[in-house]
Amino acid sequence: MQNVMAEQQLYSDNSLLLDAREQHVPRGVVTAHPLVIERAKGSEVWDVEGNRFLDFVGGIGVLNVGHNHPAVVNAVTKQLGLVSHACFQVVAYPGYIELAQRLNRLVGNGQPFKSVFFTSGAEAVENAVKIARAHTQRAGIIAFDGAFHGRTLLGCTLTGMSQPYKQNFGPFPGEVYRLPFPNAFYDVSDEDCLKALDQLFAVQIAPERVAAFIIEPVQGDGGFLPAGADFMQALRRITEKHGILLICDEVQTGFGRTGRMFAFQHSEIVPDLITVAKSLGGGLPISGVVGKAAVMEAPLPGGLGGTYGGNALGCAAALAVLDVMEHDNLISRSNRLGEKLNAHLHQLAQKYACIGNVRGLGFMQAVEIIDFETKRPDSMMTQKILDCACQEGLLLIKCGLHRSTIRFLAPLVITDSQLEEALNIFDIALARASGRFE
Fold first, then answer.
1. Distance between CA 26 and CA 12 in Å, rounded?
2. Do the beta carbons of residue 379 and residue 29 sit within 8 Å?
3. How far, in whole angstroms, is CA 410 from its chain's centroid?
């Protein structure tokens, strides 16, 4: 009886659970907030002690349709009663094929495209590289400073941040090259990046040895930095000139987050391959590579796959997500929410000197926190703001090379009143962190 009572106390107390976490989970896995949640719905979560929080992290961009959307829950529950897992490399099932059809239409827009599914975003990235190398018979991959492409060894290599992702995990795979990413706030122009590319071609790798560029149309963990249409179009022209593939990593930007179904659509280009994951599954693990049919056919039979890739439950969830996005017109809502959030963040920037920059596309918005005297990134103030927001009931996380950017990744199904409540809490958090709270 005492053991039962102790267990009940453990599972209803944040501090006790976090002590157990420290004992049983390695420190390499960081948890941003000292909370253990018990349930979630839409844009809200409740911890084991019953405290409510507005979730502006959404599983780091996973929950564009919100926590436990009824359509997703129903689709997965139905599929669970039919087939939970079979492995597509053993027998096919309808959901995988239907999901491929729908994504091919969404990305290809009339052109012949094909899709293959995996489990994580990093796995999708690695397979996109494999496909690009198979198609071009070249080895070189060009990525960007500040990029984030996953935590596998190749993902870490492609990622353009040394800490915490690379640490002492090397040696890293070869034939990966890097360019600066446009950042107007720090005076890195499109022209600077294109000149760096000319230099790269001249001294490190000739263009005819490059298989692909991989780029996030809006950098996620790198600081919510949009690559402008002019830069994306210039990159597309260069790749076409030299027979290089263009891979757009849409793992965080996809499925309405930026106000279009995919962020590359803002630039009116067509990439050769895109990687998708996160919000595709509405909370279930599924990822994919969607690409031009001629490119996707390059690997020979048996060259692609994975035991859980395109799991039947994940496919069912993904199909439900696409239905919700269409029926609830979430792309238009992303734009409306983004305009409201952006306008309010600009108002706060006028009020608080620590906000150096407001940026983003659609409902993918961020603020960069600086020391108002030196104008340098201020990671300590950033963390202080996040802690104050959490204490007031709002969950946010940071990003950027210097971990000085606060990103907003609320579900697209958030209500207007919840957004207003969150912005009010953020205002209070800024005031408390700045020492201006009355």
1. 22
2. no
3. 12
Q: Which amino acid is at 21?
A: R
H or E stretch at 189: none
Q: List the helix and strand counts (H, then E) for the chain.
A: 14, 17
Query: Sorting pLDDT into bands at 50, 70 and 90, what band is 191?
Result: very high
Structural tokens at position 325: 């996005």
How many residues are recorded in the chain?
Answer: 438
DSSP state letters, 35-85? --EEEEEBTEEEETT--EEEESSHHHHT-TT-BT-HHHHHHHHHHHTT-S-
The C-alpha angle 125, 127, 128, rounded to 5 degrees, equals 65
Identity of residue 185: F
Say how far apart CA 227 and CA 218 lie, in whole Å. Answer: 6
Tokens 């946010």 locate to 396
- CB atoms < 10 A from the CB of 46, how many? 15
Contact 228, 182 (CB under 8 A): yes
C-alpha count within 13 angstroms, C-beta hemisphere, residue 125: 28
Tokens of 284: 């279930």
Q: How confident is the model at residue 356 (pLDDT cuts 50, 70, 90)?
A: very high
Of all residues in the chain, the percent with pLDDT exceeding 90 is 92
Span 15-54, pLDDT tens digits: 999 999 999 999 999 999 999 999 999 999 999 999 999 9
* Pair 141, 209: CB distance under 8 Å: no
pLDDT digits (tens, 9 = 90+) for 62-86: 999 999 999 999 999 999 999 999 9
Q: At what angle do helices 379-392 and 416-434 cross, to 10 degrees?
A: 130
